[in-house]
């Protein structure tokens, strides 16, 4: 079978096992090139198969020789249909970790469920004893609530009034104006239920109750702020309310970990092309302008560079972890630099279908998007027949 990208809207229906493997190998090489990090040795990553979570797992394993358990929700390959990219990424990660003599096991299932939490607890008990770092990196449009049985759906909408601004269809390069109607109160509550902090605290409570957190255990969840350009639809929209809730939850978790000397943090990360962010209106146009500026200034980072810097320069320096006035770790510092934001805001006014190819990094956006699915990697023979189905042995 020759696997090619098959696009439908904001998603790609196919993914390339060899390309996903190459993606993971590149990230591992990057981490090795940056030298060791005095980090955690037993790490649980919830949302470990793509984006920031995958980068966190790779950084822990190949930066600090950590044993890792990864939890994610991915589709295995079936006859005539490729797996989801996170499935291939995780297969490749496990192969590389095992080759390096590192413990690595994965659980593929709904992290919001009691069953997957219990499976994870059993695995930690059997294999690792206690965990010293929990990374919480879920991005999901839905959550089946484990107590009420309600299926919550998140929405990406402004609050209070209609938001109108430019957006780009990054496949065609067409810049148009988009209007998004404001949400209802119920939609705010649903978005908080999916992307807020409740599930994070459920995980931490469950682990603590079973005595599976080491003394001084740390947990980190990821957030985003971004510029005033995207504020109405992001930080001051429904998703922003969920992030406010997530950030508040960090303090509650820290309280609950006091007797262990443990601590919960939120790290505010940079805007990057992921499956989640491509679906948010306005954000792809912002990212394509941001990439252009940050690349020109030598400030560009992908997920792995962000997480490497988070671990090496923030979490594991041996000194207190620097935070902003709201207690958040800021690794979006380069994105939010005043000079960078000024330049992006100026380009924003100029952006049209005609100007964008020159003033924005649409090519970089598309390349990163295809990379998410294992396409467009150097060193991969995309013309070769890919019959091989890579297995993740330890997945339950
Ligand atoms: P992603 O889509 O690449 O990764 C999401 C992960 O969650 C995957 O491993 C997926 O398998 C897993 N997942 C989703 N639903 C699940 C479920 N029900 N059970 C188990 N696993 C499930 O997303 P990402 O962009 O890496 O986002 C991770 C976090 O980082 C999110 O909180 C996001 O808001 C935040 N963030 C993203 C950006 C950005 O620009 N992409 C910037 C800052 C912060
Ligand atoms: Na992730």
UniProtKB/TrEMBL annotation:
<dbReference type="GO" id="GO:0004318">
    <property type="term" value="F:enoyl-[acyl-carrier-protein] reductase (NADH) activity"/>
</dbReference>
<keyword id="KW-0443">Lipid metabolism</keyword>
<dbReference type="InterPro" id="IPR010758">
    <property type="entry name" value="Trans-2-enoyl-CoA_reductase"/>
</dbReference>
<feature type="binding site">
    <location>
        <begin position="272"/>
        <end position="274"/>
    </location>
    <ligand>
        <name>NAD(+)</name>
    </ligand>
</feature>
<keyword id="KW-0520">NAD</keyword>
<feature type="binding site">
    <location>
        <begin position="47"/>
        <end position="52"/>
    </location>
    <ligand>
        <name>NAD(+)</name>
    </ligand>
</feature>
<feature type="site" description="Plays an important role in discriminating NADH against NADPH">
    <location>
        <position position="74"/>
    </location>
</feature>
<keyword id="KW-0444">Lipid biosynthesis</keyword>
<feature type="domain" description="Enoyl reductase FAD binding">
    <location>
        <begin position="323"/>
        <end position="385"/>
    </location>
</feature>
<comment type="pathway">
    <text>Lipid metabolism; fatty acid biosynthesis.</text>
</comment>
<dbReference type="Pfam" id="PF07055">
    <property type="entry name" value="Eno-Rase_FAD_bd"/>
</dbReference>
<feature type="binding site">
    <location>
        <position position="224"/>
    </location>
    <ligand>
        <name>substrate</name>
    </ligand>
</feature>
<dbReference type="Pfam" id="PF12242">
    <property type="entry name" value="Eno-Rase_NADH_b"/>
</dbReference>
<dbReference type="GO" id="GO:0006633">
    <property type="term" value="P:fatty acid biosynthetic process"/>
</dbReference>
<keyword id="KW-0560">Oxidoreductase</keyword>
<feature type="domain" description="Trans-2-enoyl-CoA reductase-like NAD(P)H binding">
    <location>
        <begin position="2"/>
        <end position="78"/>
    </location>
</feature>
<comment type="subunit">
    <text>Monomer.</text>
</comment>
<dbReference type="GO" id="GO:0050343">
    <property type="term" value="F:trans-2-enoyl-CoA reductase (NADH) activity"/>
</dbReference>
<comment type="function">
    <text>Involved in the final reduction of the elongation cycle of fatty acid synthesis (FAS II). Catalyzes the reduction of a carbon-carbon double bond in an enoyl moiety that is covalently linked to an acyl carrier protein (ACP).</text>
</comment>
<feature type="active site" description="Proton donor">
    <location>
        <position position="234"/>
    </location>
</feature>
<feature type="domain" description="Trans-2-enoyl-CoA reductase catalytic">
    <location>
        <begin position="81"/>
        <end position="316"/>
    </location>
</feature>
<feature type="binding site">
    <location>
        <begin position="110"/>
        <end position="111"/>
    </location>
    <ligand>
        <name>NAD(+)</name>
    </ligand>
</feature>
<feature type="binding site">
    <location>
        <begin position="73"/>
        <end position="74"/>
    </location>
    <ligand>
        <name>NAD(+)</name>
    </ligand>
</feature>
<dbReference type="InterPro" id="IPR024906">
    <property type="entry name" value="Eno_Rdtase_FAD-bd_dom"/>
</dbReference>
<feature type="binding site">
    <location>
        <position position="243"/>
    </location>
    <ligand>
        <name>NAD(+)</name>
    </ligand>
</feature>
<dbReference type="InterPro" id="IPR050048">
    <property type="entry name" value="FabV-like_NADH_b"/>
</dbReference>
<protein>
    <recommendedName>
        <fullName>Enoyl-[acyl-carrier-protein] reductase [NADH]</fullName>
        <ecNumber>1.3.1.9</ecNumber>
    </recommendedName>
</protein>
<dbReference type="InterPro" id="IPR024910">
    <property type="entry name" value="Enoyl-CoA_Rdtase_cat_dom"/>
</dbReference>
<comment type="similarity">
    <text>Belongs to the TER reductase family.</text>
</comment>
<dbReference type="GO" id="GO:0051287">
    <property type="term" value="F:NAD binding"/>
</dbReference>
<keyword id="KW-0276">Fatty acid metabolism</keyword>
<dbReference type="Pfam" id="PF12241">
    <property type="entry name" value="Enoyl_reductase"/>
</dbReference>
<keyword id="KW-0275">Fatty acid biosynthesis</keyword>
<feature type="binding site">
    <location>
        <begin position="138"/>
        <end position="139"/>
    </location>
    <ligand>
        <name>NAD(+)</name>
    </ligand>
</feature>
